[in-house]
Design goal:
The protein is about 70% helix and about 0% strand. It is mainly α.
Length: about 90
C-alpha cells in the first residue's frame, strides 16, 4: 500500500513545461549556425585532401629517377648536350 502511494507521489512530481508535443521550430539563426558548421566541416575536409595531394606531389617530384643499370653516355654525347644547353641560355 505504501509502495503505491510513493509511486503516485513520484509520478505527480514530474515537471511539465506546458509545451506538450510541439515540434521544435528552427529559426534563421539556427539555420545559419547549421550552415556555418557544415561549411567548416567541408573546409576542414578540403584542407586535408589538399594536403594529401600536395604530399604525394612532393614525393613524386623528390623521388627522381635512377640512372642505375643504364649505359654511360659517351663524351661526344655529353659535349653535344652541354653545347645545346649553352645555346639555349643565350637565346
Amino acid at each position: 500500500m505504501e509502495d503505491q502511494k510513493e509511486i503516485k507521489k513520484e509520478e505527480s512530481k514530474s515537471t511539465d513545461s506546458g509545451e506538450g508535443d510541439k515540434p521544435k521550430t528552427n529559426t534563421r539563426v539556427d539555420d545559419t549556425n547549421l550552415a556555418a558548421k557544415r561549411m567548416e566541416e567541408a573546409t576542414k575536409a578540403s584542407r586535408e585532401e589538399r594536403l594529401i595531394v600536395e604530399e604525394s606531389y612532393e614525393k613524386m617530384k623528390l623521388g627522381g629517377g635512377s640512372e642505375a643499370g643504364q649505359a654511360p653516355k659517351s663524351q661526344d654525347e655529353l659535349d653535344t648536350e652541354e653545347a645545346e644547353e649553352r645555346v639555349k641560355a643565350f637565346q
